[in-house]
Structures are given as structure tokens and as C-alpha cells.
Amino acid sequence: MPQQHSFPSPVHVVQLTDAHLFADPAGSLLGLKTRESLAHVIGQVRREQLRIDLLLCTGDLSQDASVASYEAFRDLTAVFDAPTRWLPGNHDEAQVMAALAPELVQAVTDIGAWRIVMLDSAVLGSTFGLLAEGQLQVLDEALATAGERHCLLCCHHQPVDIGCAWMAPIGLRNADALLARVKSYPQVKAVLWGHVHQHWDQLRDGVRYLATPSTCIQFAPGSEEFKVSDEQPGYRWLRLHDDGRLDTGVERALDYVVTLDFDSPGY
């Protein structure tokens, strides 16, 4: 049975994604210390989001899949007094996450008038994503039993073309299976993911498709080949209304100075 939480409308949700933490507190990507940048984003969230009903963490919480990195992520986000849900990305180890924090990796959460479905699209040892048969069954059951609840689907890998040619091969390989279910269930109002380290917001057939900046380095939108941006790390907020409407936006950690070192270890 999904966890249920009652909150006044609208439900206030925050998404954090792609923190890429290391066991080493000083671990960095392209010279950017990922724990430090996550801490700055969290500070921004705390200043701007005075109420949070649910925190969604959509993969690549860790870069090295170490217990210490997940403990650090859990401790840094513990400042939010809200139910939290994790799902794995291509740099994560789902079993390590589940062993450390089983209460955080639940697939289905009912909150207010909404059902949140967290789908594991990670493929062990691969950068691309795939929803295995078991995950599709989780999705089918969640949608079939949603009743009058509106649905927000979350995964790590992008299910649509975002205009970055180099990222297309490392997206969700069986996106058609996901999109067919979205089309079949009008309860689905939005699909939310990480992985792409950039902002994306598109309305397709009445469904909102959303990607969110990383809490560390950013990828340049519209790039043909791998390219990073000097934009600041960020997060997404969502307001989920009882009638199925949603409001959402992306905010950046304005107090964080991005200084990249292209001679240091990269992504």
C-alpha cells in the first residue's frame, strides 16, 4: 500500500537531483565540490520554500555509490521536515540506497489529491536508462489503482528528446512504453526527471514534461556534443492543485560562484 499524507491544497513539492556526492567530503567534478554546491542549493530552498510537503530526489545522488555519500546526502537533506523519496540514477547503486534508507525508496506515495510514482530507470553498469518489466508492472498497478487521484511520474532518465544530440543515446531506451501509458491514463498530469543537468519544460498533449538542473555542474542546453555550462546549480519547486493543475519553476543558488577546472576530473 502506498504511503498516504494529508495536506492542504496545493501540495508543495521540491525536487533535488544529480548531486553526485562522493565518500570524500571534498570530492569534486570539474573542480566543483559537489557537497558544497548541494549545501548552497539547500540553503536557497530553505530561504525560498517556507513550506515543503514532499521532497523528491531523482537520481545520481552519489557519484561513487558509497554508503558515506548516501549518508551525507541524507544528513544534508534532513533539514527539511518533510517526507522524502529517492530513486536511483546511473551513478547510483539501488541496493545500497535501499539498505541504508528503505523508508526513502518507496515507489508510490499518495499525498493530497495526487499520487507520486517513483520509477527506477537505472541499468546497472550503463549510462542509458530502461524501465524493466517489473518497473512497468509497478507503473501499471499504480495507474490502474489511482482512482480519482492525479498522477506525477518520476524517473531519472529523460523520456523525450530535449535537443541535446549527445544525450539522446543515454536517455530512456523504452520511452515509448512509458509514453503509451501516459497517453492511456488521463490521470497523469506530469512526468519529472533528472539526468540532463538542465531546465526543460514542455507541454505535450496536456501533460507537462519537466527536467531540472543539477545541484552541481550544469550541461549546456541544445549542445551537439558534451558541453557544460557556467550556470549556477538549482532545484525545482512544484505546486500540485486538487483539480490537477500544477505550477512549477526552477530556482538557482544565487550565492554560489561557479568556477570550473577543466584540467580536473570530469563528469
UniProtKB/TrEMBL annotation:
Entry GO MF terms: 3',5'-cyclic-AMP phosphodiesterase activity
Domain Calcineurin-like phosphoesterase: residue ranges: 12-198
Keywords for the protein's UniProt record, in alphabetical order: Hydrolase, Metal-binding
Native source species: Pseudomonas fakonensis
Keyword Transcription regulation recorded: no
CDD domains: MPP_GpdQ (cd07402)
Protein name as annotated: 3',5'-cyclic-AMP phosphodiesterase
EC nos: 3.1.4.53
NCBIfam families: PRK11148.1
High-level lineage: Bacteria, Pseudomonadati, Pseudomonadota, Gammaproteobacteria, Pseudomonadales
Protein's UniProt keywords contain 4Fe-4S: no
Signal peptide: none
PANTHER family: CYCLIC NUCLEOTIDE PHOSPHODIESTERASE CBUA0032-RELATED, PHOSPHOHYDROLASE
